[in-house]
């Protein structure tokens, strides 16, 4: 095999992205140099924040470049090693290009043990989404026993973990999501106290009913009118970790809503934006605690796995339609050398 | 003298308040009981936050009641005492009714010494506005030497102190205010580095020019498009103490602007509403430090004093037109028994 496929950014989207923003390109098989390995992509993750990287604007992560491969979290198998740290058949995780085979420096990879937890969990509950939930909720939200925690995007990779950690902390947890199946999932599988389907319910009214004692923590994943409603129901000294605003990512026009200043004053509330890398020096703490809760059965997770490299763009676009429950992943290939445990 | 005047809330304003929201009412002279004193009102303060109290809505201070006197910070003279703690001729401060003479319980008054600082400073730089500046800037804003601090309402009672404290802390300070006289005042009297006249300049563009290294702290007093502009120029880990949003207080419709979620995420910024009473257990610290800076000549202040009880509504309404520089006060009367030092 001397050829493989990459996915390039064909052009920057205006508004909602579509297939025409992606371009499949045939490329030569890369060759590792000293200190590098050749990797076979097994799973890759598509995430809402990648929409922001499609803009040519200063932000917390560098923008994608036109006619270059996109990139993100990938679980891969070492198929050829010129590194003393990795052997053929090792499973690794890294921030890598969207291509079927890629070369990476040993410094940018971390080996994962397929026997401890499924390898996909390192892209989800034990990876960036789990860490995002953990630090946003605990460091910024600081939930206390008996308080009411509301989370939007509640059935997603981050929101589903936020709600479960809030339950572990003894809070009343209300999740907002976009289908009755998702509401059923967060209530009956994950143990949320209440769920609100924003596509069929009046969110403000439903939130008011579901939070008779007001909102102490609102974990923001979506923005828009759902955020507006939650911000109208804050208790004194409420906290709002601002993780995402997926409802606005594809807006062409300014995203207008009620200004928050007066609401924040009335409740002496705190609103704090963050990205998971703000906590990079504490990732060990997060991974350890999340892994412990996972092993104790206190955390559950769901994955939506699409098969096939050719379906990566579709999986990404589906995020904005809310087709995923839990972490959205793409399975690109099976390993060639490694044997993964049956689960 | 057996009669005196009170100012009642005649009806709740819709939009901008006007004279018709106030009613002057003749009332009997009140009589103190045991533990109470009869007070002659000397100075009273009118403040933007009082607009919120004219609404019949849950907020951080109880709403004013129709056909009842309004109330707020007052400096008064004890003219008759049935309290062992106060003597005739004492100057006191308290949260009191808007009337020429009032009765108050000794527990709700604090004696002030006219020889240490002018008695009006207890309604201004040493009082609520000074404390509001002090705690909002230092506790929430946490300015560090060399950082850029922007304050709106910069020539007002709070903003003028915010900027001066930020200068004491070694910051670059940019003030936004509504007239060239005010800009001249904050730059040439108070030592701000830059001033922006929002009535004649494009605030976003002017802020961008005045803050070549971005904004680290934005002390929010006004909201609206000025707030929008500042929030567009935040540095990573910026802090926004949200003290007021005077531009929206008289809005009948929802106050719409760009939602802040994406901006807060891009800069991992913090936005925190507060009211001065959140810091009531630290008022001694604030008063002591502010008094020290005042005596050292590091803090300057300005007062706009209107004379005459009949002009209280006018003075209040003027706040929304920006007619005041520094603290807006009304002088109601001279003391009967006390002799104040000449300054």
TrEMBL record, chains A, B:
Source superkingdom: Bacteria
Annotated signal peptide: none
Pfam (any one): ADH_zinc_N
Keyword list, A-Z: Oxidoreductase
Annotated Enoyl reductase (ER) domain residues: 17-330
Key word Oxidoreductase present: yes
Cross-referenced SMART domains: PKS_ER
GO MF annotation list: oxidoreductase activity, acting on the CH-CH group of donors, NAD or NADP as acceptor
UniProt name for this protein: Alcohol dehydrogenase
Biological source species: Guptibacillus hwajinpoensis
């Amino acid at each position: 095999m001397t050829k493989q496929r990459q996915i390039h950014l064909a052009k920057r989207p205006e508004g909602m992205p579509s297939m025409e923003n992606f371009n499949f390109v045939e490329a030569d098989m890369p060759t590792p140099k000293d200190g590098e390995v050749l990797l076979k992509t097994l799973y890759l993750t598509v995430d809402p924040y990648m929409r922001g990287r499609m803009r040519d604007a200063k932000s917390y992560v560098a923008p994608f470049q036109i006619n270059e491969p996109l990139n993100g979290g990938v679980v891969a198998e070492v198929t050829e090693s010129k590194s003393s740290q990795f052997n053929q058949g090792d499973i690794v995780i890294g921030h890598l290009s969207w291509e079927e085979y890629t070369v990476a420096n040993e410094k940018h990879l971390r080996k994962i043990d397929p026997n401890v937890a499924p390898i996909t969990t390192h892209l989800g509950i034990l990876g960036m989404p789990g860490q995002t939930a953990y630090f946003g909720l605990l460091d910024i939200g600081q939930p206390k026993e008996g308080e009411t925690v509301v989370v939007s995007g509640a059935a997603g990779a981050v929101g589903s973990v936020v709600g479960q950690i809030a339950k572990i902390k003894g809070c009343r947890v209300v999740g907002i999501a976009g289908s009755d199946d998702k509401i059923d999932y967060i209530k009956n599988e994950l143990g949320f106290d209440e769920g609100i389907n924003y596509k069929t319910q009046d969110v403000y009214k439903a939130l008011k009913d579901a939070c008779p004692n007001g909102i102490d923590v609102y974990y923001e994943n979506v923005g828009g009118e759902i955020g507006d409603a939650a911000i109208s129901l804050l208790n004194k000294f409420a906290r709002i970790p601002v993780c995402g605003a997926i409802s606005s990512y594809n807006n062409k026009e300014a995203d207008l809503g009620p200004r928050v200043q007066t609401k924040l004053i009335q409740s002496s509330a705190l609103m704090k934006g963050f990205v998971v890398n703000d906590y990079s020096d504490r990732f060990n703490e997060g991974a350890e605690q999340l892994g412990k809760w996972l092993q104790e059965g206190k955390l559950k997770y769901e994955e939506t796995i699409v098969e096939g490299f050719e379906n990566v763009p579709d999986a990404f676009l589906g995020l904005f339609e809310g087709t995923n429950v839990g972490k959205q992943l793409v399975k690109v290939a099976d390993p060639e050398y490694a044997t993964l445990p049956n689960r």
